[in-house]
Amino acid sequence: MANGRGAGSKVSCESCFFAQNGLCAVTQTGPCATYRPNRPEGLRPPPQLRLSFRQERRTQLVWAFPSAAEQVALHR
To answer: Are 31 and 11 in contact (CB under 8 A)?
Structure first.
C-alpha cells in the first residue's frame, strides 16, 4: 500500500484514466508509470502533506557577536 493503491486492487490499462479517455500514448502492454485510476470525479492530484509549523523552542540566542566593549577588552 506504499504506492497509494489498495492491496486488493488490480492495476491494468482497462482501469487507467488515460486509456479510458483515449489519452494514452504508451505502446507497451500492461500498466505503466503514468497509471492513474479512472474515477467518476475525474483526474485529481494525489493528496499532499499538510504544512505544520513548529513551536519556537529557544528564547535566547545560543551565540551572538560580542559587543564593541567586549571586543576591545579581548584585544587589549
So the answer is: yes
Percentage helix, strand, coil, to 5, in the chain? 20, 5, 80
| pTM, rounded to two decimals | 0.45
- C-alpha angle with apex 16: 31 to 8, nearest 5 degrees? 75
d(CA 58, CA 23): 54
pLDDT in tens, 28-50: 776 688 888 888 888 887 788 88
Q: How many CB atoms lie within 10 A of CB 75?
A: 6
Q: How many Å apart are CA 36 and CA 43, to the nearest integer? A: 7
Can you give the residue ranges of every domain in the chain? 1-41
